[in-house]
Amino acid sequence: MSWHSLGAQAQITLKQYDADRSRAACFVDHNARCPCCNAQVFYYQNQYGSRVFFDELAPLWTKHPCTDNGRSTSTSKLAFRSRGSRIEIAEALQAVGEPPRNDWRYGLIGAVENREGHIDLRVQFPDDAQPRTLTFVGDWLPMEPGDVVGTRGSLVSFFDLACMEPRASAVGSRIVRILTQPPGNVSLDRWEADLLKRGTWDHFLTCWKAAPQSVVMRTEEVINFHLDETDVAAFADRMREHTRTAWDCGRRSLASMADYFNVQDLRTACGLAWNDRRVYLLLKVVFYEPSRAPDTGRRCRDQSGTAGRPRPSSGSPVDGFPPSQLTTRQGAHLDLTRLSKLGRIVERKGER
Q1: Helix (H) or strand (E) holding 195
Q2: Interstrand relation of 79-80 and 51-54 (parallel, antiparallel or unpaired)
Q3: Shortest CA distance to 131 belongs to which of 152, 155, 149, 153?
Q4: Domain boundaries in the chain?
Q5: What pLDDT is attached to residue 151?
Q6: What are the respective helix, strand and coil percentages of the chain, to the nearest 5?
Q7: Contact 165, 178 (CB under 8 A)
Q8: CA 254, 258, 263: angle at the middle one, nearest 5?
Q9: d(CA 130, CA 133)
Q10: What is the DSSP string of 322-342?
């Protein structure tokens, strides 16, 4: 058989398993079909009836593009492929010249065991004889037996069934509860959008050093920038270099910068994946300079002399809270001096 015919047969094999578009499909069998397009997908549902279809599992947890609220008629528990199937897929990948997909390991949670101050996950990996124990601090985890986790080194990627979002945390860390976050899309203010279109680092900084125009931070979003020992300033300093690297790589939009952070396994302080809104707030946290913001009603001029949008004054108080402190629902006492200068941090009614 010629090399070309071997390659063609290998492509057919990969497509049959959907392993041509999913790393997870090399190891984990699909447990459902999309009710819209009948594609093989990974299916998750929480106790409240929220459901989601994935094309890919950890670390990106790529959602299937069809948006349908109906449950598939052919769901089952997630399970590993047979050893023979995994070998067949590995040989097909080798035949088409793709490197082994072994940077992330996939495991199935067999048990969740609570002990004083800690929780142990018993995770079975496909080629291990015995389950591996992953220990986290605390008394709560948003995972349950039968869920898939991805691991790379000490990092664990999982899907949080409580907030229905992908997260990542290090073994030995505390996984805190997260309230449902605002939608991740952002419509940029025209002044901000015009600056970013110019494509220079100076215009980029001019945009993010100014007070926020397009997004109002909510109290439930603070956890993305401050958690336990990681305060706002430390988190901003850590992300500053990554932001410049992303910009140097041509990631100039919010969406492309979010993609860059996620592919690099960078997450928010609480382990959530980045989206447009979170990147917008991150850039304000990292670069905002209150002294540069003129009073409300004054108009700023960019470097070309064109009049821009009036910018609001800095230091707006946080509604219902002291200007520099806030106690979150997780009980953490936060220093919000830096965040409160970005504008009003508001809370939905009935969520206290």
Answers
A1: helix 190-197
A2: unpaired
A3: 149
A4: 3-95, 105-170, 190-340
A5: 95
A6: 30, 20, 50
A7: yes
A8: 150
A9: 10
A10: -TTEEE-TT--EEE-HHHHTT
Q: Residue 124 has which token pair?
A: 């079975």
Would the pTM of this model clear 0.85, i.e. be above it?
no
| pLDDT at residue 118, rounded to an integer | 94
Dist. CA 190–CA 296, nearest whole Å: 17
Q: 235, 278, 240: which is closest to 259 by C-alpha?
A: 278
pLDDT of residue 21: 80
Residues in the chain where the model's pLDDT stays below 50 = 1-3, 293-307, 309-336, 340, 342-352
Find all residues with CB under 8 Å of 16, minimum gap 6, and list them.
Answer: none
Q: How many CB atoms lie within 10 A of CB 64?
A: 20
Strands (E), the chain: 28-29, 32-33, 40-45, 51-54, 79-80, 105-115, 118-124, 132-137, 148-152, 155-160, 165-170, 325-327, 333-335
Predicted pLDDT of residue 9 = 86
Q: Which two tokens stand for residue 29?
A: 């069998």
3-class SS at 103?
coil
The CA distances from residue 352 to 42, 140, 221, 262, 312, in Å, are 34, 20, 14, 31, 28
H helices, E strands: number in the chain:
8, 13
Model pLDDT, residue 19: 85
Q: Are 272 and 261 in contact (CB under 8 A)?
A: no
Helix or strand or coil: residue 23? Answer: coil
- Cα–Cα distance between 294 and 311 in angstroms, integer? 7
Sequence-distant (6+) residues with CB within 8 A of 263 are 60
Q: How far is CA 53 from CA 34, 80, 117, in A?
A: 7, 18, 34
C-beta of residue 270 within 8 angstroms of C-beta of residue 168: no
Query: Is residue 240 a contact partner of residue 284, using CB atoms and an 8 Å limit?
Result: no
Looking at the domain 105-170, which fold is it? OB fold (Dihydrolipoamide Acetyltransferase, E2P) (2.40.50)
